[in-house]
Amino acid sequence: MPEPRQLRTVVGRPTPWLATLLLALSTLPHLAESTPRKITIAVARDGANLEQSLVEAIEEELPGHLPRNVSVRFDHSDAYDAGWDRDNARRAIEAALAKDSTDAVLAVGSLVGYAASRGASDGKPVLSTARQRPDFLRLGSGVEGVLMPRRVATEVSTFREIVPFSKLHLAVAAEHVGLLEATSADFFEAMERSGIALEVVGIRVDELEAALDSLQTAEAVLLADLPRLEQAQRRELLDGLNRAGVASFSLRGHADVELGSLASSTPPYDEQLARRLALNLARLIRGEPLDEVLNVDSRLLLNAQTAVTIDQLPSRELSVLAEMLHPEALESPEESLEFDRLMDLAESGSQALRVSDAEVEGVRQDQFIARSALRPQIASGISYTHLDTEQLGDDQGGFGSISLVQQLYDDGARSGARSARDLFESAASDRETIRLDVLAAAGQAYYNLALAKADLRVVVSDLGVTRDNLELARLRQEIGFSGRSEVIRFESVLAARRTSLFASAENVEAARIALNQILGEPQFRRFAPQIPHIDPQVFPPFDGRLDGIFDSLGPDDGTRKALVDFAIKRAPELTSLRSLIAAQKVQVDFLRRRFFVPRVFAEADYTEAFQAPSGPFVTTDDTWSISINVSYSLFEGGARSAELGRAKSELSALERTATLIEQRIEQRARTAVRQVEGSFPRIRFARRAAELARENLALVREQYRLGTVNVTDVLDAQNQQLSAEQFANAAIFEYLSDYVELQRAMSFFELEESQEERDAFVEYLLSTGNE
């Protein structure tokens, strides 16, 4: 079976004496370990202090990759400085190589790197720091370096998705214009095939205003590395482009987006680059094959404030796909929402609770109405009489009256008042049930939104991985490792992942709207749930004090019974039913007594004639009376027996309902306990699975880059990672949702209880759970 191919092996050869030394080191290991050796690396630069921090990082990293007896000295002679002149670059490289003590050359910058690739290496190994791409600034043979398997043409396509344009200005360092024409023919051809008119603009560090003037009318600007510009100058350039309304896309990376560029898909990779260059220097010294492909994952970052400034708002797809810097510029900012504030918003804003409050108030008024029957009833009246008969002639009279009725004993009214009191208590308990349901629903919606947002982040990340794999597949096709079919396969996966992206974004908005409805907030309001870090080794509630109960084995039977008893004791549903039962018992007792208990009431009446008639039958101007009345119904056609029977049946139904509700509360509590004790340990296993899936994907992608596995292996590993990341998110939020359900089953939400009540609950569980 043939050995796996490498993407690139070292081209430069070590000097003869260095080769002899390396052979000696390999055949005489003991001698090699004891004999100290010093290697000199000449540092040639395009210009003074170019990428000083990168060189320092390489110098610090390199010794750790060499044998103990080998030391390294970096030679920073001024003779190796090209002074930002392309013609001097060759002389700088030749000077570095010509020095007898030089064992290898580190070419810092594109000019000296290109000069070395034009045959100036003289057999000594040269490593360039230039960030090469398959279609852009690709150095020739004779010099080693790093190759990013990402095409500038692809980033231009991404730029074009953000801002439509037909002409593109490419801003490069003026010193690199000729170099670009010599090394980037593939890029120019790709632009021509895409129908993009390309104009290269050389940026001189001392003529920045002139460069800005030339770009004022540009449709779009692609920013190359521009190594001579300091950060303040880059910001000045970007500010000028933004004031002119010109969109810019940076090949340099996210740092330019932070300075004001519209977008970039290159995250920071300086540390990764320094390590790879140090490793390759060590391999050059040892005469080993190099690992030149630097796989920097893409991550599109958009500056929303810049988008608003230049009036180029991203599409819906890009607003979902890209990370946003200053996202508040595009939409209402998300408000941080902690769980305790969520509880307050739910209780104060829920319309379901407002409806329940109105219903409770209605029952409270019914209670007053029932009590009023026991209080004095006072009535007044005025009457006028006009008589015109043959016997009495024309006569008229006016009367005013007032009457008072007071129940002395009315069993029905008294029973009604007592029932009304119990009904009010039942309504208040029903309101508490609804309140707890609202809090639980708000908690579930809160975690549903957090899960949807987490899943969206996973899908966006996976989409970026798919893009990077597609670029790697294209690079493999170019060097003959694979065919067009692998590229098509990843293109198909990319299209499918974009579909998933929109579905995930829709889930986020649906979850957001659902949460706002429960909270009674405007449904366009944007909340950002704040999820605390969960240590899967310690059960989080009550400051971890229940960890001994909810360990990997879960609560014991005694604890489960204690939780069930607590839930039954606190359940407002049962409290409401008990109040209904008490009210119904009052009615049953009243209907029983109704067969033999009369109604007794006192009545007083006073009438005064303010215009007394003159007829013969009127003897006084006013009258009054006082009476005590006893009323007893002798026969109502059997209604009393029927009403009593119906009341007994209703009482029996309520009592049986209470038993049923108690069983359901126990079922809910036991189920919630089982769910929590199962979902919490899953967090640890799901996180570990996600970590392993990420490691596996990194290994498989590396093997795919080296040509030792095929596209199916990569897709399997990628799908495995996607599933594992989603499962890890689901495990966290399943536990959190389960804990919300447990609190609802207990009618005990931890955050709304006082510290004394929380302490009492913990002590109750710790004491009763071991009995």
Which strand order do you get reading across the main beta sheet? 2-1-3-4-5
Average pLDDT, rounded to a whole number, is 84
The computed structural class is: alpha/beta
Strand content: 15-25%
The percent of residues in helical segments reads 55-70%
Give the radius of gyration: 43 Å
Terminal CA distance: 68 Å
Count the E strands: 18
Low-confidence stretches: 1-32
Number of helices: 23
Shape verdict: elongated
Largest sheet: 5 strands, parallel
Q: Could you give a quick summary of the protein structure above?
A:
The protein has 771 residues and is α/β, with parallel strands linked by helices. Helix 16 (351-372) packs antiparallel against helix 17 (411-479).
Any overview of this molecule?
The structure is a single chain. By secondary structure, this protein is an alpha/beta fold. The strands form five sheets. A five-stranded parallel beta sheet has the order 2-1-3-4-5. Mean pLDDT is 84; it is low at 1-32.
